[in-house]
Amino acid sequence: MAAGLFAACGPGQDPVPVRQDPPATRESLATGGGEPGLGRSPDPTPLTITVLRVSSAAGGGDAILVADSAAEPPRHVLIDAGDDATAARALREAGLRTLDLLVLTHAHHDHYGGMDEVLDAVTVRAFAFNGQVRTAVTYRRLLDRIEREVPLVIVVDSVRRVRLGEGEGATTLTLIPPLSTYLGADTDRGERLNEGSLAVRIERGAFSFLTTGDAEREANRRFSARFPELVDVDVLKLGHHGSRDATDRAWLAATTPEAAIVSANGTTHPHAAVLALLKGRGIPLYCTPQHGAVRVRVAPDGAYHITTELPAERECAPGRSQ
User: Of 297, 5, 216, whose CA–CA distance to 128 is shortest?
Assistant: First the structure.
């Protein structure tokens, strides 16, 4: 099944089947709060993108669960896994036994540290990453385990499209290749690891979402120059946990988000300058330290709304240790 999932990337391949849903009317952004039970959606039809609240001393970690319940069978993708058991717990609470695709944006522990727990919790059919070289023991152990246990391993060195279904309302994931400058060098330097982050665009109908891992300015300039149509989105997960080295005026001009999400620890991140930049531009911002898990629910035609685990009226705050 994993091979079939990725076969949709190539020309002339049959996409994975999807159930057709009635058309929905695109709506303006609506916000809510206090949503109970982020594991299962009460609405059986939408695509849901949940930015989980993970805890980490390093920035804050990322873990994004993508669930398309309109696909037949339903499809589930996890982008990064933080460095704790949050992602694995979310998969168990959702009743999942299989993950169709696990994506690692780059080789930082606050993005891959929770993947061992994920592999313990579910069967993973396919794994995609940037091919980054690093001899950190935990990273090498993870890759060795994935090589043994996951049937399909993809190094994203070109644009790869993964369709979770077929028809007008189907969800498409686009894996955008990273800046390759530092991928071949064994390094623990944070900015070099960050700049090698791959990006993931998620589309359904008229809706689009983008996450770029911890990509900083050099990687963002390349994304903007080489893939301008792929980084122009409705909802942007800010890079590097809301750090000033990842989000600036040029990047917001390229991505033009209607709303943005920060996954951070609330201690070192997000940065005050980024919060001020988003506020000055009138872009609604949701931050996991204040809002808990943040969920984007998308109808077949792309109408979407955002709900939060904790009250949405809370304001994002900069990391306390800045």
Answer: 5
Mean local confidence (pLDDT), 233-251: 97
Residue spans of the domains in the chain: they are 45-308
Q: What is the pLDDT of residues 12-26, one digit of tens each?
A: 222 222 222 222 222
Share of the chain above pLDDT 90, in %: 75
Q: How many residues does this entry show for the chain?
A: 322
Q: What per-residue confidence (pLDDT) applies to 166?
A: 75
**Given pLDDT bands bounded at 50, 70 and 90, which one contains residue 9?**
very low
| Fold of the 45-308 domain | Metallo-beta-lactamase; Chain A (3.60.15)
pLDDT at 170: 82
Q: Mean pLDDT throughout 283-303?
A: 94
Residue 212 predicted with pLDDT over 60: yes
